[in-house]
Amino acid sequence: GQQLNQSPQSMFIQEGEDVSMNCTSSSIFNTWLWYKQDPGEGPVLLIALYKAGELTSNGRLTAQFGITRKDSFLNISASIPSDVGIYFCAGQEWYQGGKLIFGQGTELSVKP
Amino acid sequence: KAGVTQTPRYLIKTRGQQVTLSCSPISGHRSVSWYQQTPGQGLQFLFEYFSETQRNKGNFPGRFSGRQFSNSRSEMNVSTLELGDSALYLCASSPGLASDNEQFFGPGTRLTVL
Fold it and tell me: How do beta strands A10-14 and A106-111 pair?
């Protein structure tokens, strides 16, 4: 199936460090969403982006909608142990209604 | 506001059987989308229902079907189960509007096919 290219696949960091992950696509999206998923649970929406160039924050999380509309990144500042989980980017094309195309995920591990 | 609920949370079936999964969206949301999550393929879109009509469909065989009721609750059915259908099935609810289409996921139904 169609997927976004999300990197890195995994990260092992020390508590307090900043984290950055990104997604790229061959398609233009009108919406970018970032989710976090814990084991055995559904993805939880972290940040939604609707405009090219948009920079949005949610606490220690900051995400940007790339100006080409084909990429997005997510930064987490001053990581803490509860940031552990899998982070997914998802893109949505304007004419595709509710259909989200997901990246492969970035698995984040935080060492106290 | 209550979140998205899915039932059952866990299901074990054997090959050839059929299964029905249920999803209750957030109150006021008219769109329900279904996704399949597997370690190999990640999150893949199955279909979306909006106001009881299928609005979008992914690339899954016809064994996968769904419907939506007038109260926006949705069901997904998989017939003639195969081993490869073992997955976490997630539903997501949203208002379904072009100006407001953020999707919120339920906890999922873990289907195991033996």
Answer: parallel
- Residues 59..88 of A with a Cβ closer than 8 Å to B: which? 88
Residues of B in contact with A105 (CB under 8 A): 42
Q: What would the pLDDT profile of A54-97 be if each residue is shown by its tens digit?
A: 999 999 999 999 999 999 999 999 999 999 999 999 998 876 67
Closest-CA distance, A107 to chain B, in angstroms, reads 13
SS (H, E, C) chain A: CCCCEEECCEEEEECCCCEEEEEECCCCCCEEEEEEECCCCCCEEEEEECCCCCEEEECCEEEEECCCCCEEEEEECCCCHHHCEEEEEEEECCCCCCCCEECCCEEEEEEC
